[in-house]
Amino acid sequence: MDISRNKIYPPDMPMGLDIALAKNTKAADYFYALPEATQKQIMDHTHTISSKEEMQAYVDSLVNNNSVHKNFPMK
Question: pTM of the prediction?
Answer without folding.
Answer: 0.77
